[in-house]
From TrEMBL:
Family: Belongs to the IlvD/Edd family.
UniProt protein name: dihydroxy-acid dehydratase
Domain Dihydroxy-acid/6-phosphogluconate dehydratase N-terminal span(s) in chain numbering: 548-877
One Pfam family hit: ILVD_EDD_N
Species of the source: Carpinus fangiana
BP GO annotations: isoleucine biosynthetic process; L-valine biosynthetic process
GO cellular component: mitochondrion
Length: 1087
């Protein structure tokens, strides 16, 4: 009979109640930890108060408590039922023996409480080592825990902002003399708070006991799919809302729902009725807020509105019509009559006042929209100046304001001559500022249970309708002695003052080109900045006050032929800029050479340099207030990094491609060679098939040495239609570089002439307000994809174009399906490396990319109407270029293509449910079936190749996994492996990976498999011996002999691998990077 286990001892629980605060840092200094939670007094008062008595809703964490203006991170309050234990341990672990001896441990009976600061892991070890030798006492119970579980990797900090420093020193210090002499204008320089640059991110740099967790949409859950992959579903069985979200300055408005909206038939009956009534309402009132729509329609099911709006309306993310539903096809920015539908948005605190001496605040319950219609205030969208605003209300429309005082103000308001898309809309800035200030003050008073007195606001009617520097003195009223009036006039002046608006003119009527730099250079607003600029090279006062400042960003560094010459190109650009009466500032960012890092650990750093380049250019351009940017990239990731930066700062910009390298030549082999020859020859070298038919006595080491010495003869990017030339060609077709930029060799005199032309073009862009987002249109991306398919561009072009489109917030979004659609209709016509015989220098000799675009434009395959950086259309730019010579052999006629459709194929199946990208020119066939040979990491495949372990004969599908954006990390290119296989003539092999292949790769290869293995994608479940079929004609990638049941069983056995790196730039990248199917971005968290 098994004896019963001993009963656990009963311990009394004292009545003391303890509140837990779970600090996210490893606390080494208790005083600093308490300071980060508000300080001892504030923290103690908060924790001792009953929940309904607390003056703030949540406990807040500030990782930099010395920054007075940082918004704290809210804790989540959780009810718990825990005991608080006091554990008394021996001073030492209780185990000791002579060092380096093999003797048994003996116990030490010196039982003393350990010193403070014992780490958790030390405490756990000490308890394990001293079973029965430590004392446990229950000292209290806990019913409430405050937790910080959703921390970002950085917080935005104001500590380095001039305004914040002055406020902290002169105001927060409570020094009366400093407060009395404090002037906002001295610090802000006239900037409006809503348009000032955001402060730079400051990384927390704290030890944390757990990994940061970036939460998915809480309404979405991730589940196992029947095919063994992962899929996401709404936790509620509702149609996913997919709505057009426009920027304030987007050129056009949508006329139909997004293409990926679910069919209307999928809506619930209540949602269908809501959609019917909403369409009827929008016919009468084409712009309506959510509250107004709910109040004007007869429904109790308000929650259905979110699913109906996507089928009949769009929304502006910012500007005068923000947060209102606008009827498809109606653009309220075109009609002054629409100003009655403009919105005013306020962040009102949801609070009601307790009637007690302390006048504390408590947060109210759910808003009235959740109540049945019969219980709702159906006029909550209106403002009458008397009724307190609804709990959930924050947006009002001009036409819903019935307050007599504000109606009188609006009735006298002049119509603005030109619509301002960013703030005032059809109102002048003085009227708009006065309206906002009065309305906000009244709302605050009504929220507090007070009654506004219209007499307090009457003096404000004397404020000018239009406020500028010229009449700013008129905005100081004679009787501003009253605190309330002074507060209101100060608010009006703050709201009305703006930076130099787009389209401003100089005194002589010429366009004002220094729109952004004038923030620093006008008057004496920033004397320190002007002193630094004089020291940096601004020649005189006239230049300081009038000349635009152009940033010249070169991706230059030595040690890589793609980039070694870019600094010299930058110098030429600077000379040309200064000749055009502009100020040029050269600055630099860095990258990684793909060819040098190929096949080694350095390649993991390559893709993340795209983000580094974008971050660098965005940072310098915005922080230095440059008026325009000319970027000079050279290597693969450089080009998309520059364009992503352009899309972020959205100031007039031009890209100058550094140019392609000239072909190399092998004297002994008697033929042209390039960098790809090195990788392919290495495969032949390993399999002992490298020989010289012209000289049989030459050893394979001698042959490979000669190829290494002569493959790259000078500066320039890799010469075939690899990634660098693919992206340069696409960007030229989009209108973001000058005609001919993408095919002009690096050493050609024409490249220097291009630098001079770029200075003239950037001046045109500034004068005509041609900004990157005006050029990054759907038609421009279509042109990029057409050129990519026609010339046989790299699969990396898919990844980079997706990243560029998502950074520019293209609507509708660019997807993998767009690439397949374009590939299906565009013939592959270019005999260019890596699959063909010629290089970009050869194409330049017969007319270059302008001649190719001219051919495609004549066939109706390119959109010639798109705007370009020259200020002309693409068709106008190409008109002066000659066509391709009839006797050239590089570009095939459209009627006789190499392949009647494009080479890019998007595949899906039980290995890649979210898509994969294949580069199939047709020479390899259109389908391949083989036995899986699986390698976890590229290094394992390289070792197998070096050992000659890849068999010949039977068809093999090599699977390389855990090399995606997160798993690599960095999604490394695998040209070394693919080139080695080609060089070894292993034609029985196909390759698939969740990583990338170089633009120089060719053969039967599939990359970008999504989801990647590191996040549990089905590619992680593939095993040696599985039969894999790649079918380009059917667009499928499947493990054909693996059933859904097998996939589910394998998933249960799968365990996520430990992160490869845990600190440094790659660890940060792995945490931030998104899926390859959306471009592998690091600054988007809503995919």
């Amino acid at each position: 009979m098994v004896p019963a286990p001993p009963a656990a001892p009963w311990r009394p629980v004292p009545p003391e109640t303890v509140v837990h605060v779970e600090h996210p840092g490893i606390v080494k200094d208790i005083d600093r930890a308490v300071a980060s939670l508000g300080g001892e007094i504030k923290l103690g008062q908060y924790l001792h108060d009953e929940p309904h008595e607390r003056t703030q809703r949540n406990l807040k964490l500030n990782l930099h408590p010395q920054d007075h203006f940082r918004v704290g991170i809210d804790a989540s309050v959780t009810g718990v039922s825990n005991l608080v234990l006091k554990v008394t341990l021996p001073k030492r672990t209780g185990r000791r023996r002579p060092r380096n001896s093999g003797q048994q441990f003996v116990h030490d009976d010196d039982a003393r409480t350990p010193q403070p600061g014992l780490r958790t892991q030390d405490l756990q070890r000490a308890m394990r080592d001293n079973v029965g030798r430590y004392d446990v006492q229950v000292v209290g119970q806990s019913s409430e825990s405050h937790r910080f579980r959703r921390l970002p990797d950085f917080q935005f900090s104001t500590m380095d902002r001039a305004m914040a420093k002055r406020l902290a020193n002169d105001v927060v210090s409570y020094d009366y003399d400093k407060i009395k002499h404090f002037s906002v204008d001295e610090v802000t320089g006239g900037l409006r708070p809503n348009t000032d640059l955001m402060p730079p991110p400051r990384f927390s740099l704290l030890d944390v006991p757990f990994n940061y967790l970036y939460m998915d949409n809480p309404a979405v859950k991730q589940v196992d799919a029947p095919d063994g992959g992962l899929t996401r579903h709404l936790k509620k069985n509702k149609s996913i809302s997919r709505m057009h979200m426009l920027r304030a300055d987007d050129d056009t408005v949508p006329t139909a729902p997004l293409p990926d909206c679910q069919p209307e038939e999928s809506l619930s009956p209540n949602a269908k009725k809501m959609l019917h009534d909403l369409r009827a309402l929008l016919l009468v009132r084409p712009v309506v807020t959510r509250r107004a729509a709910l109040n004007l329609m007869t429904h109790d099911y308000a929650y259905e509105l979110r699913y109906a709006v996507q089928y009949c309306s769009y929304m502006f993310k910012s500007g005068p019509f923000k947060d209102a539903y606008c009827r498809f096809g109606v653009d309220p920015r075109k009609d002054p009559e629409m100003r009655k539908h403009q919105t005013l948005v306020f962040q009102l605190k949801k609070r009601t006042r307790f009637h007690d001496p302390k006048e504390k605040w408590s947060y109210t319950a759910k808003g009235q929209a959740a109540k049945p219609r019969s219980e709702r205030n159906l006029k909550s969208h209106e403002f009458d100046g008397v009724t307190p605003p609804a709990v959930e209300g924050k947006t009002w429309q001009i036409g819903d304001i019935t307050d007599p005082l504000l109606v009188r103000l609006l009735s006298q308001a002049p119509v603005r001559a030109e619509f301002d898309p960013f703030q005032e809309g059809w109102f002048t800035n003085g009227t708009w500022a006065t309206l906002r200030a009065i309305l906000k003050d009244k709302l605050d008073m009504l929220q507090a249970g007070l009654v506004p007195d219209d007499a307090d606001y009457e003096p404000l009617f004397a404020m000018p309708d239009t406020i500028s520097d010229a009449n700013l003195q008129d905005c100081f009223l004679a009787d501003e002695g009253a605190a309330k009036l002074k507060s209101l006039t100060t608010a009006i002046r703050s709201i009305a003052r703006v930076e130099t608006p787009q389209g401003s003119k100089n005194a002589d009527g010429s366009p004002m080109l220094n729109r952004w730099s004038s923030i620093l250079t006008k008057d004496h607003d920033f004397p320190g900045a002007q002193a630094m600029l004089y020291a940096a090279g601004v020649p005189d006062k006239r230049a300081m006050k009038n000349d635009p400042q152009v940033g010249i960003a070169s991706v230059w560094w030595e040690g890589n032929p793609c980039n070694m010459h870019l600094h010299d190109l930058g110098k030429e650009v600077k000379k040309a800029v200064e000749k055009e009466a502009m100020i040029g500032w050269q600055f630099n960012t860095v990258g990684v050479s793909d060819a040098i890092t190929m096949g080694n650990e350095g390649m993991r750093f390559s893709l993340q340099t795209r983000e580094l380049i974008a971050d660098s250019i965005e940072s310098v351009t915005c922080a230095q207030h440059h008026d325009a940017c000319i970027a000079i990239p050279g290597c693969d990731k450089n080009m998309p990094g520059c364009i992503m930066a352009f899309a972020r700062h959205n100031r007039p910009s031009i890209m100058i491609y550094g140019g392609s390298i000239m072909p190399g030549h092998s004297t002994s082999l008697g033929k042209p060679i390039n960098v790809t020859s090195c990788f392919e020859s290495h495969g032949a070298y390993i399999y002992d098939t490298l020989s010289n038919p012209n000289n049989p006595d030459q050893t394979k080491d001698q042959i490979l040495t000669e190829i290494e010495e002569h493959a790259c003869p000078g500066p320039g990017a890799c010469g075939g239609m690899f990634t660098a030339n693919t992206m340069a060609t696409a960007i030229e077709a989009m209108g973001l570089s000058l005609p001919g930029s993408s095919s002009t060799p690096a050493t050609s005199p024409a490249k220097m002439r291009e630098c001079a032309r770029a200075a003239q073009a950037i001046k045109v862009c500034m004068a005509q307000a041609i900004t990157p987002r005006r050029l990054l249109t759907r038609a421009a991306f279509e042109n990029a994809m057409v050129m990519m398919m026609a010339l046989g561009g790299s699969t990396n072009g898919v990844l980079h174009l997706l990243a560029m489109a998502n950074t520019a917030e293209l609507q509708p979004p660019l997807t993998l399906d767009d690439f397949q659609r374009v590939s299906n209709k565009i013939p592959f016509i270019a005999d260019l490396a890596p699959s063909g015989r010629h290089l970009m220098a050869d194409l330049h000799a017969v007319g270059g990319n302008p001649a190719v675009m001219k051919l495609l434009l004549a066939a109706g395959l390119l959109d010639g109407s798109i705007l370009t950086v020259t200020g002309k259309s693409l068709a106008d730019n190409l008109a002066a270029f000659p066509p391709l010579p009839p006797d050239q052999a590089i570009i095939r006629p459209l009627a006789n293509p190499i392949k009647p459709s494009g080479h890019i194929e998007v595949l899906r199946g039980n290995i890649a449910p979210a898509g994969a990208v294949a580069k199939i020119t047709g020479k390899e066939g259109m389908a391949f079936t083989g036995r899986a040979l699986v390698f976890d990491k590229e290094a394992a495949l390289d070792a197998a190749l070096n050992a000659g372990a890849i068999p010949r004969g039977e068809n093999i599908v090599i699977v390389v996994r855990y090399e995606g954006p997160k798993g690599g990390p960095g999604m490394p290119e695998q040209l070394k492996a693919s080139a080695a296989l080609m060089g070894a003539k292993l034609t029985n092999v196909a390759l698939i990976t969740d990583g990338r292949y170089s633009g120089a790769s060719h053969g039967f290869i599939v990359g970008h498999v999504c989801p990647e293995a590191a996040v549990g994608g089905p590619i992680a479940l593939v095993r040696d011996g599985d039969t894999i079929t790649i079918d380009a004609a059917a667009h499928t990638l499947d493990a054909v002999n693996v059933s859904e049941e097998d996939m589910r069983a394998r998933r249960k056995e799968w365990k996520a691998p430990r992160p490869v790196v845990t600190r440094g730039v790659l660890a940060k990248y792995a945490r931030l990077v998104g899926d390859a199917s959306t471009g592998a971005l690091t600054d988007r968290f809503d995919f």
